[in-house]
Specification:
globular; Aspartate Aminotransferase, domain 1; 14 helices; 391 residues; Aspartate Aminotransferase, domain 2; seven-stranded mixed β-sheet; 2 domains; binds pyridoxal-5'-phosphate
Length: 391
């Protein structure tokens, strides 16, 4: 028997990453050696102290019962203490924090809690696809494409936000896929325009810790009035290489957190307590707002890779910047990015075509530096051979 999907599920666009992954798998099965710089899954090790904590916490019988949807009090207190130490932001762990199964869950639940069919939502383009798919389409809302152009340093235009009549705006810096960063002045403008126009800001800060060259990513909650309009999402996936452990948290405006928790409590029954207890130790490994040595070492490795990658891509003729945040290099390839990505697959390198992040991603490729430097070097050598196909 085959059953019909709901209309909203039918409206989900094809996931372009799967198309590339499918071709990649076929080529690998046919014996071709492919270096994948496509998916942004951290390859660097989870710090040993976290693995030890996980082992210890999962061995305790009392950690296998139900938690609650909002998360254990100790987890929320640790998240609040980290926000204070890292950003100087004070939040109430009782009402202004909730645990999440990663930042992605926050996007889905916030949208479900606050959107009615037809409500407008500002979606960054290019942008992480979960905003459009899990946020807008699955809630029958209406996307308003918010262009992030190179000419505007991959930031949205404030006037565009003001005239959008949107109920929710998604923002993410350090930015996937462009690697762009922001400063507090820009966040102040965002908070002001959101407050003036009654827009909820969902600030996805999943890459806040993956930054380089002395740049420290701010929290939108540092800005005066931020707590009035924003909810910020944090993730352990990138910072601590815990993508598969599924843990994060949302912090911010009390009513926005309440909405997320209302939906979450109907969908799951909380994160495993042993994951929360492990995550507490990860957060407590920070000292004076600085990450532990293991995380610093991983960031230094990403830095070495993105710097090498961007410089090499430029010599091949792909225009790009060395990012100050994230582990992505966003390179202009011109033309049909899917076709270019397929050509690169033919020489044994998988990348993500920019079109997968929205119409304004067309003409770009995203290279993810989540492979060892030796693989990145080899990938660049393979690309150099087809230099002229990417112009
Ligand atoms: N937000 C952005 C911008 C991402 O790029 C990703 C993962 O790639 C996520 C959220 C998902 O994070 P998590 O693993 O915490 O759900």
């Amino acid at each position: 028997m085959k059953f019909e999907f709901s209309n909203k599920v039918k409206r989900l666009p094809p996931y372009i990453f799967f198309e590339i992954e499918k071709i990649l798998e076929e080529k690998r099965r046919a014996g071709k050696n492919i270096i994948s710089l496509s998916i942004g899954d951290p390859d660097l090790p989870t710090p040993q102290f976290i693995l030890d904590a996980l082992k210890e916490e999962s061995a305790k019988p009392e950690n296998h019962g139900y938690s609650n949807s909002r998360g254990e009090r100790e987890f929320r207190e640790a998240a609040a203490a980290w926000m204070e130490e890292r950003f100087g932001v004070t939040v109430n762990p009782e009402t202004e924090v909730t645990a999440l199964i990663g930042s992605k869950e926050g996007i889905a639940h916030l949208s479900r809690a606050f959107l009615n069919p037809g409500d407008k939502v500002l979606v960054p383009d290019p942008g992480y696809p979960a905003y459009l798919n899990g946020g807008v389409i699955l809630n029958e809302a209406t996307p308003v494409v918010m262009p992030l152009t190179k000419e505007n340093a991959f930031l949205p235009e404030i006037d565009f936000i003001a005239s959008s009549k949107a109920k929710i705006m998604f923002l993410n810096y350090p930015n996937n896929p462009t690697g762009a960063i922001i400063d507090k002045r820009f966040l102040k403008e965002v908070v002001e325009v959101a407050a003036d126009n009654n827009i909820i800001v969902c600030y996805d800060n999943a890459y806040s810790e993956i930054t380089y060259g002395g740049y420290k990513a701010p929290s939108i909650l540092e800005v005066e009035g931020g707590m009035d309009v924003a909810v910020e999402l944090h993730s352990f996936s990138k910072t601590f290489s815990m993508a598969g452990d599924r843990v994060g948290f949302a912090v911010g405006n009390k009513s926005l957190i309440e909405g997320i928790v209302k939906v979450k409590s109907q969908v799951d029954s909380g994160l495993p307590k042993y994951i929360q207890n492990t995550a507490i130790r990860a957060l407590k490994s920070y000292a004076n707002g600085e990450p532990p040595k293991e995380v610093k070492a991983n960031i230094a490795t990403y830095w070495e890779r993105v710097k090498f990658l961007a410089e090499k891509l430029r010599t091949i003729g792909l225009e790009c910047a060395v990012p100050k945040g994230t582990y992505y290099v966003w390179a202009r390839c011109g033309g049909d990015s899917m076709q270019v990505a397929k050509k690169l697959l033919d020489v044994g390198v998988a990348v993500t075509p920019g079109i997968g992040f929205g119409e304004h991603g067309e003409g770009f490729l995203r290279f993810s530096a989540t492979r060892p430097i030796e693989d990145i070097k080899e990938a660049c050598e393979r690309l150099a051979k087809i230099k002229n196909t990417c112009s």
